[in-house]
């Protein structure tokens, strides 16, 4: 920029008639390209016109074209040259306009700092948008146009490492870069962070004199309760009481029958008590047998369970003993 300013401060060399005619033709072509919306082509024609016949109006038009097309880096240089030339030509209005546009462009220019990894092999070549960069440019803020860019790191025997980056107006970013993987080798997959295992206290060492503790007995390994379970004991007791009740009731029925024959009656009090005693004894006997038979035993697997409900119906002249249940 300093060299361009010094050159622009010198008196412009007079162009030949041929160059002036060619420059005027490029200016006309630039205006036509602008009408078609082709700013890139218009900027090329203006740059050629400025080279053939350098004039302040052409330079300012070129700076404005570069700014409108998004090429702010070139626009900054061109507005600075226009400011210095307007100062040299003593044109204060053009100088003020150039200074205003230059300040606006400088606020919009983005800067990108490329930091090459310290352990990167020597000889790596860094390219910015396919343009090689000097080693001195690394680590310093590089003025760049806002938008999308691609940084490529090349090294012989290695794959190209590509770093896409997007810059906004006035952005200032730092991008760490390094060389790519060795050619022909697949890059290592990213390793997910694995949480550290929880620390557990070590088990105490067994004493040589200590007796090893027996493992806790499971439900299946527990000692069997035996053949005489609670249900079978209750069934045996109820059955015994039922047998006694049946015997006592039968005896009372026999005695009552004799008394009834003596008195010439059908039913006596002894017979009624005997029948009731026999009925209760029968119910108890049946209940005891059912409990005894349906009780599960730990010595043999349980294949069936019986649910029985004994019933007793006593009428005036007869008694009915029954039981209902299900498997």
Helix count, per DSSP?
8
Could you estimate the helical fraction of the residues in percent?
40-55%
CATH class division of the largest domain: Mainly Alpha
Classify the fold: give the CATH topology of the largest domain: Serine Threonine Protein Phosphatase 5, Tetratricopeptide repeat
In N-to-C order, the SSE pattern is HHHHHHEEEEEEEHHEE
**Class by helix and strand content?**
alpha+beta
The stretches of 5 or more residues where confidence is low (pLDDT under 50) are 1-12, 188-204, 206-225, 298-304
Principal-axes geometry comes out as rod-shaped
Q: What radius of gyration results from the CA coordinates? A: 57 Å
Counted up, domains total 3
Task: Using the 3D structure, state the CATH architecture of the largest domain.
Answer: Alpha Horseshoe
What's the mean pLDDT score? 77
CATH H-level superfamily of the largest domain: Tetratricopeptide repeat domain
What can be said about the biggest beta sheet?
Answer: 4 strands, antiparallel
Oligomer: single chain
Q: Distance N terminus to C terminus?
A: 107 Å
Strand content bin: 15-25%
Q: How many strand elements?
A: 9
Strand order of the largest sheet: 3-2-5-6
């Amino acid at each position: 920029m300093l060299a361009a300013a010094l050159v622009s401060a010198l008196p412009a060399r007079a162009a030949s008639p041929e160059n002036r005619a060619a420059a005027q033709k490029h200016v006309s072509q630039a205006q036509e390209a602008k009408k078609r919306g082709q700013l890139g082509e218009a900027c090329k024609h203006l740059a050629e016109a400025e080279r053939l016949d350098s004039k302040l109006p052409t330079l300012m038009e070129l700076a404005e074209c570069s700014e409108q097309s998004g090429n702010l880096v070139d626009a900054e240089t061109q507005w600075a040259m226009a400011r210095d030339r307007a100062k040299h030509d003593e044109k204060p209005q053009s100088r003020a306009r150039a200074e205003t546009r230059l300040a606006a462009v400088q606020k919009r220019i983005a800067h990108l700092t490329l930091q090459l990894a310290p352990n990167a092999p020597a000889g790596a070549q860094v390219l910015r948008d396919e343009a090689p960069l000097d080693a001195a440019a690394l680590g310093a803020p590089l003025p760049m146009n806002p938008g999308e860019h691609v940084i490529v790191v090349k090294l012989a025997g290695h794959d190209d490492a590509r770093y896409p980056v997007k810059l906004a107006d006035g952005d200032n970013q730092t991008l760490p870069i390094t060389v790519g993987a060795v050619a022909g080798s697949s890059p290592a997959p990213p390793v997910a962070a694995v949480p550290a295992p929880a620390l557990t206290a070590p088990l105490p060492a067994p004493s040589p004199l200590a007796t090893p503790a027996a493992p806790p007995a499971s439900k299946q390994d527990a000692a069997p309760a035996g053949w005489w379970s609670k249900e079978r004991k209750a069934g045996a007791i109820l059955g015994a009481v039922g047998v006694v009740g049946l015997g006592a009731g039968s005896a009372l029925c026999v005695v009552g029958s004799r008394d009834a024959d003596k008195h010439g009656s059908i039913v006596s009090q002894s017979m009624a008590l005997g029948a009731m005693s026999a009925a209760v004894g029968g119910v108890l006997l049946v209940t005891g047998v059912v409990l005894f038979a349906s009780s599960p035993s730990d010595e043999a697997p349980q294949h069936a369970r019986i649910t029985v409900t004994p019933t007793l119906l006593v009428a005036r002249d007869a008694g009915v003993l029954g039981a209902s249940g299900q498997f």
